[in-house]
Design a protein that fits this description.
Elements lengths: L2 H20 L2 H18 L8 H19 L3 H11 L13 H10 L6 H13 L3 H8 L3 H18 L11 H20 L9 H17 L4 H14 L25 H17 L4 H12 L7 H14 L3 H15 L1 H8 L9 H12 L3 H14 L3 H16 L2
């Protein structure tokens, strides 16, 4: 594991732990960044046995040094709290309570939805403003401003760093579910660089499990956990031997994680018994169909997408439904749906359109659509996959 891998795997955990120790998100993030700067100089030869614990200890010491240089009463009080912490910070291990507290803090209703998700992706995922901006299709300056304002608002309003009381949980649940879903998606298809950030996907699964333990009677929490497990189960077959992307239809189903699939299916059945369908439960049900048997029952998938679109009428849901329409009713009807959608900057729209056009024999238009998708794609593996498809199509007579 190199330093960059350590940063991506440990950054969010360390910031969450330091926030608990310091009580200030901004100070915690600065201290962790300083600790990683020290690591760049000191880890040339060998990484410590527990890089996360090393970063937390170094960051705490840096924060103490900074507070000692401050002269305000608040700083002296904070310094006293830090110096009274017994022993060294515990090792960063499998317990994720700090991360869950961080999510609930960032998802306080006083913050805007974009600020909530952007701040959480920054603090827990270690994503930079440009990466978050690409994920949301908004200017980098907008993301940066929201993150800065959100941290300031948390500090100035005294928003507590804790999991809320039971009465407060439902009011923040929708935002927390959205954030966990986005964290997982960023790990499953990274905005830039390599296709997968496995550490981030697994972190989202762990936190979804913790949330399900905290709120076992919330069907959408169960649905989200089921969805993440069923998608994560397919990860081993998602890349080929040369690191290329392998689409669902071409994956080796024997490589899928059967334990995760069985657990996900059981959770979906639990959701169905409750009879309170929501978007995460419906997405989980769709993925349960994908992972049930030797082939996908596209008629059933389309029926579930009809329900999902009625519940969540967004262009992305409509685009995903169009893929199912193509399998059930043919590419011509699906293309008519896709051509009505407006998703500027979203590379999967022209990529889907290119595939449908190719299936209809409209090769020149398909090549042009692939060119647009390649231009918009920011992930290297996805871009390479699209380029390969385009090249194969352009060679056909």
């Amino acid at each position: 594991m190199d330093l960059d891998s350590v940063y991506r795997a440990e950054y969010g955990r360390c910031v969450a732990t330091l926030t608990r120790l310091l009580g200030d998100i901004g100070l915690a993030e600065e201290a962790v960044q300083e600790a990683f700067a020290v690591a760049v100089r000191k880890w040339d030869e060998e990484l410590p046995a527990n890089p996360g614990a090393w970063i937390v200890t170094t960051a705490r010491n840096r924060a103490i040094d900074r507070l000692r240089r401050e002269s305000t009463r608040h700083a002296r009080h904070a310094q006293a709290l830090l110096l009274n912490q017994p022993g060294e910070p515990e090792e960063v291990g499998p317990v994720r309570d700090d991360q869950l507290r961080m999510i609930f803090t960032c998802c306080h209703p006083a913050l805007s939805p974009l600020a909530q998700t952007a701040l959480t992706l920054r603090l827990l995922g270690g994503l930079d403003a440009p990466e978050i901006a690409r994920a949301y299709l908004v200017p980098e300056a907008t993301v940066y401003q929201r993150i800065v304002r959100a941290k300031k608002k948390i500090r100035d309003a005294g928003i507590p760093y804790r999991v809320p009381d039971a009465a407060e949980l439902p009011g923040r649940l929708a935002s927390v579910l959205t954030v966990l879903y986005l964290i997982f998606n960023e790990g499953y298809t990274s905005t830039s660089g390599d296709l997968l950030r496995t550490d981030l996907s697994l972190e989202a699964v762990r936190m979804a499990r913790a949330l399900a333990d905290l709120m076992p009677d919330e069907p959408e929490v169960t649905g989200l956990l089921a969805l993440l497990l069923l998608v994560e189960a397919r990860r081993p077959a998602r890349m080929g031997p040369a690191g290329e992307l392998v689409p669902l239809a071409e994956q080796d189903r024997s490589a899928w994680n059967r334990e995760l699939i069985a657990e996900g299916h059981e959770l979906v059945r639990r959701c169905l018994r409750r009879g309170q369908p929501g978007p995460y439960q419906l997405q989980a049900a769709i993925n349960a169909v994908h992972t049930d048997g030797p082939a996908t029952d596209w008629t059933q998938v389309l029926s579930l997408y009809d329900q999902l679109l009625a519940h969540t009428p967004t262009p992305i849901v409509a685009l995903n439904r169009a893929v199912a329409v193509a399998e059930v009713h043919g590419p011509a009807l699906a293309l008519a749906i896709v051509d009505e959608l407006d998703l500027p900057g979203y590379h999967l729209l022209p990529a889907t359109r290119a595939d449908l056009l190719a299936r209809l024999g409209r090769t020149a238009e398909a090549v042009a659509a692939y060119d647009e998708a390649i231009t918009l794609a920011t992930n290297d593996t996805e871009r390479s996959f699209l380029a390969t498809r385009r090249e194969r199509l352009s060679r056909e007579p």
